[in-house]
Amino acid sequence: MVMIAPSILSADFTRLGEEIRLAEEAGADMIHIDVMDGHFVPNISVGQEVVRGIRKATRLPFDVHLMIEDPDRYISDFVNAGADIITVHLEAAPHLHRTVQWIKESGKRAGVSINPATPVWSLENIISEVDIVLVMSVNPGFGGQDFIPESIEKIRTVKRMLRERGIEALVEVDGGVKISNAREVADAGADVLVMGSAFFNSEDYSEVVRRFRVENQVSP
Ligand code: DX5
Ligand code: ZN
Question: Do residues 66 and 37 touch, judged by C-beta distance below 8 A?
């Protein structure tokens, strides 16, 4: 089953707990939390204290996407705050094996993300260690950007790489995903689709999830 992970970056921050509860009620599979430091990406978003605060709002897994330099410094903070999946960027973590190992030793699932300009082959020597590969389909930093069409081929290539090596890791896709392209992204090989603006800017979250399930029900 293809999973939907609403990104709270586009939620109403004055009512964050309620937004997350509504996403859970609507049938979301996990909550995607974008952490930005103003260095690795131009924007600043939320940190570990916000994650700790919203942990009480839901039982859904927290999918924490670290768009920060030197992620090693903060992994234990996000583990303690209640993250279930911690994804770091390949471009930001020079000692990626150590970082991934550390996340896994903390009992959490480890993800590695690649930016649109980072080739899939850069994953060659880490892919067998990860639980999730996060393919960015926009340049990270902001919600509401357009899906970069070349990402479809990258998703296919990542999926093929995993299949050929018998690796169980999930493929997650983040950026510009909406109902109208969800099927194409899932058919290319995505297991988890992040949806920020298309989810939280909609009137009816249950309707988004319902349409998402209809779109994907006949996918392989
Ligand atoms: C972008 C973030 C995304 C973002 C997606 O840097 O990593 O998770 O919230 O937002 P949409 O779905 O609006 O592109
Ligand atoms: Zn994200």
Answer: no
71 vs 192: CA distance, rounded Å: 22
Q: How far is the CA of 94 from the centre of ligand 1 (A)?
A: 24
Distance between CA atoms of 66 and 190, rounded to whole angstroms? 20
Q: Which residue has the tokens 């770091």?
A: 88
Q: Is 149 in the pocket of ligand 1 (CB under 6 A)?
A: no
Tokens coding 4: 């939907």
Distance CA 76, CA 58 (A): 21
Q: What is the SS3 assignment for 28? A: coil
Which pLDDT band holds residue 218 (cuts at 50, 70, 90)? Answer: low
Tens of pLDDT along 36-57? 999 999 999 999 999 999 999 9
Please tell me if the CB atom of residue 45 comes closer than 6 angstroms to any atom of ligand 1: no
Helix (H, G, I), strand (E, B) or coil at 186: helix
Residue 219 has pLDDT above 80, yes or no: no
Closest ligand 1 atom number to CA of residue 7 = 9
